TrEMBL record:
Compartments where found: Cytoplasm
Source organism superkingdom: Eukaryota
Organism lineage string: Eukaryota, Metazoa, Ecdysozoa, Arthropoda, Hexapoda
Protein's name according to its UniProt entry: Vacuolar protein-sorting-associated protein 25
Taxonomic source organism: Neodiprion lecontei (Redheaded pine sawfly)
Cited InterPro entries: ESCRT-II_cplx_Vps25-sub, ESCRT-II_cplx_Vps25-sub_N, WH-like_DNA-bd_sf, WH_DNA-bd_sf
Keyword set includes RNA-binding: no
Gene name in the database record: LOC107220115
Keywords: Cytoplasm, Protein transport, Transport
Length: 175
């Protein structure tokens, strides 16, 4: 897990208050989207729980005593949903899955790795993909299992792979 480099806005108190001016608000939301994706990439996390954001250093800058309100976090997550970088995990939209690559991009990254490393026509366990010795230098190493499965489903849809999930066995066959 890496160390996050906070952008200058993170120490700027108005960054934690939704701006009323349309152009400023758009820039602010874009900066928050970038920060959230970078934070989740660096920390290898994937789930945002709106009910727990007060304890997250991402949404709570204690050095300037500022917190991003949950309503604003929800607006940003909705924007990430539109760009294919987040999806709600429940109907009340309290828990979200966030991914710094879209699911299709993740699928292609994993598929390209499988092709380049001779795994076409063979089966890999999901554990091997995210925790195996062959993937320690890959961006998908340590990837959240929900994000992994969802990205592999995009490969299934394009007939590049088949998920194999039964009992406690989870794997993928690459074509």
């Amino acid at each position: 897990m890496g160390e996050i480099e906070w952008p200058w806005q993170y120490s700027f108190p108005p960054f934690f208050t939704l701006q009323p001016h349309a152009e400023t608000k758009e820039k602010q939301l874009n900066a928050w989207k970038s920060l959230i994706l970078e934070y989740y990439r660096t920390t290898k996390q994937a789930v945002v729980d709106i009910r727990e954001i007060d304890s997250s250093p991402l949404f709570n800058n204690t050095s300037i005593n500022r917190k991003l309100p949950s309503e604003v976090v929800l607006i940003i997550l909705e924007e990430l949903y539109k760009s294919g970088n987040a999806i709600p995990l429940d109907k009340s939209k309290q828990r979200w899955l966030v991914y710094w690559h879209t699911l299709e991009e993740w699928g292609e990254i994993i598929y390209n790795w499988a092709q380049e490393n001779g795994f076409a026509g063979s089966v890999c366990t999901l554990f091997e993909l995210t925790q195996g010795e062959n993937t320690t230098d890959q961006e998908f190493y340590g990837l959240d299992s929900d994000v992994l499965i969802r990205s592999l489903r995009t490969l299934e849809a394009s007939k590049k792979a088949e998920l194999i999930i039964f009992d406690d066995n989870q794997g993928v066959k690459f074509f």
